[in-house]
C-alpha cells in the first residue's frame, strides 16, 4: 500500500556559508557565482523543496535592474547620451483628456482640418458680385440666389445650360454652358464663367473665364478675365475682345485687347490687331495684323505737403 505522506529531504552537514535561498527554490546564475566566490559547498543538498515559492526580494531585484541599465548605458553612443542630457531639463508637453475636456476628441475632425488648411472656404463658398453696385461678397456654393448685402438687389446664382435656340437674355452669377446646338440671340449675357460650343449674338460679360470652341461667327463684345480659344475652333468675332489674359490655340478673326499677356500657340492664328502688355508667339503661330505693346505707367510719387 502506497503512503500519502510527502517525501522529506534529509538535511546535509552544515557548511561555512550558504547564500540566501528564499528568493527562489533554485540557485540562479548570480547566486552560484556568489557561492563559488565565497567558497561555499555547492554539492550540499537543499534545505527547502525545489517547488517552494517565496516572496521576491524587491531591493535585490532593483539592484539587478540598475546594473542592467548601467550595462546598456555603457554601450550607448556618446552622441545619444549628450543629446539626452541637453534635453533633460526641457519641460515635457503632456496633454491629457482631462486637461482638454471630456467632450474634445484627441484628433481633430475632417471639417476642422479643412478649415485649418484653408479648404473650407474654397470648397463650400463662392464669390458673388452685385449687378448694380458691383459689391463683391461670399455665398454658399449651393445657393441659387442672393441679395446684395450692400444695396439689397436680387442676384441670380443659377447655372444655365442652353441646348436649343433662345432669344432670352441671360443675367446670372452662375456658370453658363452653350451646347453645340445652342444659339443665343439677345442683348446681353452675364455669367461667372462662360463655355461656348454653339453660336452667340449678344454682349458678353464674365467675371471669370470665357472659353470658346466652335466654328462660326460670334456677334457682340466680350469682356472677361481670361479669354481662351481652344484647339479645333475657327471663329470670327465681329466685335472687340477685352480680357486680362488671352490664349489663342486656334485660328480666329478679330481685334483683341489684353491688359496682361497674350499667347498665340503653335496651332493658333490671329487675323486682326492685337494690343497687349506682352505678346508671345510660339513657332507655328501667326499674327496677321498690327501688334501694339502697352506699358502700365508707374503711379506718381506722393508729394510732401509744403510747410508753413
Folded structure, characterized:
This protein has helices at residues 29-37, 58-75, 78-86, 97-100, 110-117, 119-124; strands spanning 125-129, 136-140, 145-147, 154-156, 160-162, 165-166, 170-171, 175-178, 183-191, 193-196, 199-206, 209-212, 215-218, 222-229, 234-237, 241-248, 251-253, 256-258, 261-264, 269-271, 274-276, 278-281, 286-287, 291-293. The chain is of the alpha/beta class and 308 residues long. The strands form four sheets. The chain has a 15-stranded parallel sheet that branches. Strands 13-15-17-20-23 form a five-stranded parallel sheet, with no helix packed on it. The longest helix has 18 residues, at 58-75. The radius of gyration is 44 Å and the shape is globular. The protein starts with 28 loop residues before the first helix and ends in a 15-residue tail after the last strand.
Number of strands: 24
Q: Kindly report how far apart the N and C termini lie.
A: 134 Å
Classify the beta-strand content into a percent band: 25-35%
Low-confidence stretches: 15-26, 40-54, 65-70, 91-105
Total helical elements: 6
Give the helices and strands as they follow along the chain.
Answer: HHHHHHEEEEEEEEEEEEEEEEEEEEEEEE
| Main pleated sheet | 15 strands, parallel
Briefly note the structural class of the backbone: alpha/beta
From the spread of the alpha carbons, the general shape counts as globular
Oligomeric status: single chain
Helical residue percent?
A: 10-25%
Amino acid at each position: 500500500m502506497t503512503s500519502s505522506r510527502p517525501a522529506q529531504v534529509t538535511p546535509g552537514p552544515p557548511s561555512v556559508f550558504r547564500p540566501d535561498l528564499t528568493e527562489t527554490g533554485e540557485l540562479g546564475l548570480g547566486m552560484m557565482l556568489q557561492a563559488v566566490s565565497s567558497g561555499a559547498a555547492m554539492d550540499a543538498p537543499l534545505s527547502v523543496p525545489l517547488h517552494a515559492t517565496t516572496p521576491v526580494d524587491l531591493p535585490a531585484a532593483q539592484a539587478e535592474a540598475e546594473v542592467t541599465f548601467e550595462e546598456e548605458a555603457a554601450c550607448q553612443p556618446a552622441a545619444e547620451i549628450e543629446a539626452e542630457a541637453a534635453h533633460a531639463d526641457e519641460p515635457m508637453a503632456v496633454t491629457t483628456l482631462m486637461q482638454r475636456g471630456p467632450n474634445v476628441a484627441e484628433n481633430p475632425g475632417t471639417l476642422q482640418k479643412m478649415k485649418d488648411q484653408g479648404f473650407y472656404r474654397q470648397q463650400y463658398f463662392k464669390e458673388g458680385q452685385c449687378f448694380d453696385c458691383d459689391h463683391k461678397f461670399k455665398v454658399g456654393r449651393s445657393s441659387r440666389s442672393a441679395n446684395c448685402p450692400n444695396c439689397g438687389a436680387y442676384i441670380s446664382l443659377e447655372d444655365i445650360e442652353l441646348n436649343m435656340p433662345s432669344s432670352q437674355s441671360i443675367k446670372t452669377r452662375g456658370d453658363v454652358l452653350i451646347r453645340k446646338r445652342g444659339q443665343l440671340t439677345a442683348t446681353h449675357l452675364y455669367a461667372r464663367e462662360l463655355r461656348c460650343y454653339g453660336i452667340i449674338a449678344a454682349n458678353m460679360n464674365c467675371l471669370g473665364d470665357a472659353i470658346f470652341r466652335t466654328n462660326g461667327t460670334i456677334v457682340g463684345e466680350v469682356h472677361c478675365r481670361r479669354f481662351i480659344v481652344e484647339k479645333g475652333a475657327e471663329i470670327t468675332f465681329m466685335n472687340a475682345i477685352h480680357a486680362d489674359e488671352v490664349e489663342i490655340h486656334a485660328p480666329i478673326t478679330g481685334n483683341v485687347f489684353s491688359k496682361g499677356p497674350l499667347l498665340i500657340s503653335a496651332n493658333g492664328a490671329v487675323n486682326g490687331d492685337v494690343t497687349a502688355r506682352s505678346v508671345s508667339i510660339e513657332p507655328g503661330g501667326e499674327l496677321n495684323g498690327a501688334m501694339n505693346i502697352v506699358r502700365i505707367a508707374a503711379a506718381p510719387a506722393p508729394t510732401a505737403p509744403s510747410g508753413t
